[in-house]
TrEMBL record:
Protein name (record): DUF2059 domain-containing protein
Segments forming domain DUF2059: 83-125
Domain of life from the UniProt record: Bacteria
Pfam families on file: DUF2059
Residues in the signal sequence: 1-22
Source organism (scientific name): Mesorhizobium caraganae
UniProt entry keywords in alphabetical sequence: Signal
Amino acid sequence: MTSFASPLTRVVLVFFSFVALTAGTLAVSAQTISDINKANGFHESLMSIRPNIANATKSIPMPLSKKFEEAWSDAVQGSFDADKMEAAIESRMAGNLTEKDLSDLASFYASPLGKRVTALEIQASTPEERKRKKIDGPKILAELQTKDPARLELYRKIMEDLSSVDMGEAIALNVAYAMTAGMLGAAGKPLKDEQIMGLVKQQAAKLRETIEKNVMEGSAYTYRDLPLDELRLYSAFLLSPAGSRYYDQMLAAMAVVMGDEARSFGHRFFVALGYRKA
């Protein structure tokens, strides 16, 4: 375990920086779950997961062996397929929202404000903008303390009302558990559930800190040009029955589906390292 624990910890933190940045930024313009997810840029977000995982090892400040890097690359190619994850998420969400929920979601995002918010969120999810977000997000957030404290407090309120950090942490721990279990299983060294969770929870405080930081920085960057009054209206919509149910259902489905993919990734990674034949 000691040979990969530190790299794994850093990879999980990097991975969930991405998850935190996407949490809560969902937009819709149609009246089925599938159409909603296609209209809101969610598919594009899922497509970003694989390259983010592939590049996660670059954050590890220690030399990695060629074998490690090749095994990581091989494992990534077999996991986190966007189409597969999207289908699984939609299957889990099917029937969990009422027709009124879907109608309310569609009505909001067909409005001028809904379209504006959607455009900002999709723009912020592009590879170029994600790079800028990592650089400019912290700067913008720091400036809000003196330049626009009302906006800062609204970002914080949205994060707290939607339990963004709690949900992000739950997803992170679930995926970290699955990834660790997959690796240990492939290595022929399975541990009891409580032992694996004990290893994962050692990183819980750091994960939570990273998630909160990235949710706030991501919001500060994504909505930087949205007038405060419009941000308040968007906040009210996210907390509406339709908005909150969609958000809750999406994250719950993501937690399970991404956990499954992480377990597969962990298994593939250790098989590629030669710990066990596939």
